[in-house]
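Protein Record: Sequence and Backbone Structure Tokens
======================================================
Tokens: labelled as protein backbone structure tokens, with as many entries as the chain has residues.
Task: work out the structure tokens from the sequence, keeping to the layout shown below.
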Amino acid sequence: MLMTAYSCSIGGVLTPIGTPPNLIMLGFLDTMCDIHVSFFQWMTWGFIAMVLYFLVTYFVLWKMFPADVKHIDGAQEFIQDRKRSLGKWTRAQKNTLIAFIVPVYNVLAVIILEYYRGGAASPSALAVSLLKNPLIQGFIVGLVFHFAGWELPAPIETPVLTLANISIPMALVILGGTLHFSQIQENLRLLVPVLTVKMLVLPALMLAITLVVPFGFSAPERFMLVVMFASPVASSSYVMAESMGADGPLAGQLVAFSSAISVVTLFLWVLGLGAAGLLG
């Protein structure tokens, strides 16, 4: 309970608007010291401070107030029974989750790319970047059609669905045609560590989390999470990088090489999970 209470305060350190003292401090710095701290500059150091606060608080509370109960009989079974009683996710629930995650992910990507390419971090500049992004534009158009109840005529919908079905293979074909070995050699020092983290470290970390969390994961849930984090770099990242003026060739190389490497790594992950008895 103490950790939960402290976490509410610690989480407020992350953003300038997370807690009133942050705004007061920004006001003092601005008016008295002529120091201007942007929202994202604050978050850069706020994130580091938040993580350190969490670690320090956890170990202090763990030492000062050790848990009286190490294990509650029947707790795992009770949680699993409650999860099973909820039943499988409906299609509407899955679509709602996707409709929330996809735009949030893309909006955050635009904000991060805009900040690290040295662009203005003002709300107006970010809004313009978001509206100019083709992925965000597609989401907005789809949202309008959904809530308006509009449907495309069959002569238009059929070719659109065909294009949608071949979009990923076509993207990989195009990316393969744009690869240059000279650029690959230049980016090798980035490709190797990024692909290692993406294809090996992240899925291993997610597997460890699914094994140690107290409420437990079912075998299908664990399999889904590991495979999701072990999957190749999304082809849309190349479009995002190009539209935001980032390193498009590097993004394309990451997509192409991760897609090729995943043929082996995904097989090994599934084989390892099966051998360890973690698939059910």
About this structure: The radius of gyration is 23 Å.
